[in-house]
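Changelog note: in this version the structure field was regenerated for every chain. One regenerated record is shown below for reference.
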Amino acid sequence: MYNYPAVPGIDTLPTMYDLPSEDPEEMGLPDEFHDFQPKLLRETCQPAEVDFFIGADLNLYYDVRQTSWYKRPDWFLVLGAPASQSQADLRLSYVMWQEGVAPFLMVELLSPGTEAEDLGQTLRVVGKPPTKWQVYEQILRVPYYAIYDRYSHQFRMFCLQGARYVELGVSGQGFWFEELALGLGIWVGAYFGIDGQWLRWYDRSGSWIGTDREQLIQAQQQADEASQLANRELERADLLAAKLKELGIDME
């Protein structure tokens, strides 16, 4: 479990401004899927919790005793941490001893180079940082951990029970998070014109949460339909007025 630092003040520790945001020598740089999928998750994640922060491919520093150690989740959600309100406040990284709130949900998108570690199949090397699975499960104790394999379209959910992650069954549309009043499942469709099977959030009625573009298109369609209806009503009124005039009836 994450322990808060026993230090007199934050000035004694590095902040996100002091720590590097990436390691250029690290293997497994994001591909196109790792660019588009986190965007779809961000756009459609609208939890009931007022304050929440979403990070994607952002360094997460987790050990106050080893301030250079970090993991870089593909996507994560933190409840109780405020989102940035201005460009100047945008985080360079997520630093646990600065934020004080651990993520609620981690999402990893499997790729050949990181699959074993994402699935907890690698062991820690002596003298090296703990594995990703160990950090999520034993240090940060993240309540939920989701894994999606775009090659097999397999979506797996793990929940922290006691000291270990236990895999939960994903049935029906997906997995429902009562804490968020949202569900996460696999949606078949086109995102940015790219057909595929994508992780996406849905609401209590089972409807997929709309992206910004989809909501804009829907609003435009509704406006067009309202305009067409108004025009039809105006045409009917004009026809009725013309008919009454033929009959010698003056409505004025």
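Spot check on this record: Residues 212-246 form the longest helix (35 residues). The chain is about 25% helix and 25% strand.
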